[in-house]
Specification:
Number of helices: 14
Mean pLDDT: 96
Helix content: 40-55%
Distance between the termini: 46 Å
Oligomer: single chain
Strand content: 5-15%
Shape: globular
Strand order of the largest sheet: 2-3-4-5-6-7
Largest sheet: 6 strands, parallel
Number of strands: 9
């Protein structure tokens, strides 16, 4: 049965929910290794050995939401909040551009002090200074009008992880938020024309194999250009501080299965993986990932952007981050790609 399911996953890029649950329940080390090998083979069909570098700028740790797992939740009084100025953000982008990056990810909590007008100014300033660079926003749920205005201003991509495709699990973790609205935002972003990123956490309290199967099938249906999958890491200042958390191994399985179900996706080897395991990002590359996002934020604020604790690389200069990641990627048998790194379906970049 496992042989049949693995072949179906690889050759047809599909499984039913029942198939996925059975596969996860019966996954032996031998089949796991084959799963990872097939994921790497599939990624190479679309992106060869390239690992795409995105310069990450975490420009605000203010957030209006109160997600139970996140260290930036509004109810956490111990966060030292910060906002970078537009000038600070441009300086980060310039440093990254000089280091060779042609793709920038601007990420924050849901901070509505960064209005549509201000975000348009930031995006147009970066685009005018670095016209050959791509811009990704990861700033949460906004209105359709906001999304359209930022797309028209030159934003290329938008990351909005769905976190979990289970309505009941989502609502248990996101007080005051709407599962339907979250999913609607992703469809609106797709309709507007963004290269869209979705994704989920592995190891959430109460998460089952059925929930993980729902996540994978949601991704197959949505077919986003980018998929971010990382382990849940408990934060000591959240209601889930006593939770067990996710594992690198379980996350690797989800990365590999997502690669086979959505074979042309761009998928990051996340910092969270490197936080749990010194070679976690390299393991993610060997399970089908093909993106890394070195941090361009000023070192003085990096520790303050703590979705989870003990995040790696918070004290490194941007140049050291790039050098360290390059060495790791090359040692893993892959090649650095510093271009815009668009999805393979994108023919003419904005």
């Amino acid at each position: 049965m496992m042989e049949v399911l693995l072949n179906k996953l690889y050759e047809q890029n599909e499984l039913t929910q029942e198939d996925i649950v059975y596969f996860l329940e019966h996954l032996t080390p031998e089949y796991q290794k084959r799963l990872f090998d097939l994921a790497v083979e599939t990624r190479k069909k679309f992106y060869n050995k390239s690992v795409f570098m995105r310069g990450l700028i975490e420009f605000s740790n203010y957030c209006k939401q109160d997600c139970l797992y996140c260290g930036l939740r509004r109810s956490n009084p111990h966060v030292e909040r910060y906002r970078l100025s537009e000038s600070d953000i441009l300086d980060c982008a310039e440093e990254g551009y000089n280091l060779g990056y042609r793709s920038f990810v601007l990420q924050s909590g849901e901070d509505f002090r960064f209005t549509e007008e201000l975000m348009i100014s930031i995006v147009t300033s970066i685009k005018s200074r670095f016209p050959d660079a791509a811009i990704t926003l990861s700033i949460g749920e906004r209105s359709e009008a906001f999304y359209r205005a930022l797309y028209d201003a030159g934003t290329d991509r938008y990351l909005l992880r769905h976190e979990t495709a289970s309505r009941s699990l989502y609502e248990s973790l996101h007080p005051g938020m709407s599962f339907d609205h979250r999913i609607s935002c992703l469809h609106v972003l797709k309709d507007i024309g963004y290269q869209v990123g979705a994704g989920f956490m592995v190891g959430l309290p109460g998460q089952t194999h059925n929930h993980l199967a729902e996540d994978l099938l949601f991704l197959k249906e949505l077919h986003p250009e980018m998929i971010g999958i990382g382990p849940f890491i408990p934060h000591s200042e959240t209601p889930l501080k006593e939770a067990v958390g996710g594992t690198v191994q379980d996350t690797l399985v989800m990365i590999a299965m997502a690669r086979l179900l959505v074979p042309d996706a761009l998928m990051p080897a996340t910092t969270a993986m490197g936080t749990l395991d010194p070679t976690g990002r390299e393991k993610a590359l060997r399970a089908g990932a093909n993106v890394v996002m070195p941090n361009l934020s000023p070192p003085k604020v990096r520790e303050k952007y703590a979705l989870y604790e003990n995040k790696i690389c918070t004290g490194d200069e941007a140049s050291h981050c790039r050098t360290c990641l390059e060495m790791r990627i090359i040692a893993s048998g892959y090649e650095i790609e510093l271009s815009r790194g668009d999805h393979c379906r994108v023919i003419s970049p904005k």
